[in-house]
Amino acid sequence: MTWTMGFVLILGILIKMITSPPSAAVAWVLKKFAIHQEINEKEITLEYDNHLIEGQVKEKVVKMFNEASFLKRIHIYPGNEDLFMPHNQKTVPYHICYSKGKKKIQLYLYIEEKYLTVVKQTNKKVIAYQMDAEEQFTEYEENSIYLNSKINNM
């Protein structure tokens, strides 16, 4: 009888946890599988046109990336991944490289006036998405740091 009650109690707790998990567990799962994850300025290397960027410009690009809101995912069909890589584009992207665990992640940021287009490349997977960065772009445009993905003042 005691074993039955203990088993029912444990089963009830387990069912309760599965049907309505705590907020911390939900936040962890959403953060783990999010397409657009925030980046830390100290853990990344930022390049533009094969030149390493440091200092204030790096801070502003990272802030712009982190504060931009996700708009939509751009679907890449199998076999067309190469079309989204920088050597096939007209503009020069910002190249962000960092490691997360054993994965090496590369981000290519194409800064436009209203949108921030991101191409995220992990080992064999390529994901592209657009983010709304109009508010941040106008702020940086006033500072004459960005103008159509080009650095005016270094």
Describe this structure in words.
The structure is a single chain. With 154 residues, this protein is α+β, with helices and mostly antiparallel strands. It is 32% helix and 28% strand. It has 4 helices and 7 strands. The chain has helices at 2-19, 23-32, 56-67, 134-142; strands at 45-48, 51-53, 69-74, 94-100, 103-111, 115-121, 126-132. A 7-stranded antiparallel β-sheet has the order 2-1-4-5-6-7-3. The chain starts with a helix and ends in a 12-residue tail after the last helix. Mean pLDDT is 78; it is low at 142-154.
Task: Please give the share of residues in helix.
Answer: 25-40%
Total DSSP E strands: 7
- Round the Cα radius of gyration to an integer and report it: 21 Å
Shape: elongated
**Backbone structural class:** alpha+beta
Report the major sheet: 7 strands, antiparallel
User: How is the largest sheet built, in terms of strand order?
Assistant: 2-1-4-5-6-7-3
Query: What string gives the helices and strands in order?
Result: HHEEHEEEEEH
Share of residues in strands: 25-35%
Spans of at least 5 consecutive residues with low confidence = 142-154
**How many helix segments?**
4
**Residue-averaged pLDDT:** 78
Instruction: Note the gap between the termini.
Output: 76 Å
